[in-house]
Amino acid sequence: MMGLILLAALAGGALLTWLRAAFPAARRLLDLLGAAAYMIFFAETARAVLKTLLDDTVFMTQVHEILLRPLFLICGGYLGPYGLSLLLAQLWARDK
Asked: Is 82 exposed, middle or buried (0-12, 13-18, 19+ CB in 10 A)?
């Protein structure tokens, strides 16, 4: 299963890198989606931590319920390949 996840992340990163290079307009859209995903990911995480602190369940496993939230999973799933595509684009630009 981990191999499949790694392969999907690499394929997604390669696809996003290709889109960034092939279509300049796509670069802006991908960056906008990346910023939105980052903000939603951050807000979901902050909400889970705040709820844990307010409920005084710091030493419980309540904070792990964030792993079941669809927005957290979708945004985190996009940020992995997006971050990889940014790194690949930087490496590609350095070689030129």
From this structure: buried
The domain in which residue 51 lies consists of: 23-95
Kind and range of the H or E element at 14? helix 2-22
What is the sign, positive or negative, of the torsion defined by CA atoms of 78, 10, 91, 19?
Answer: negative
pLDDT surpassing 90 at residue 64: no
* Domain total of the chain: 1
On whether residue 4 sits in a domain, the answer given is no
Residue 71 within a domain: yes
Q: pLDDT over 90 for what percent of the chain?
A: 62
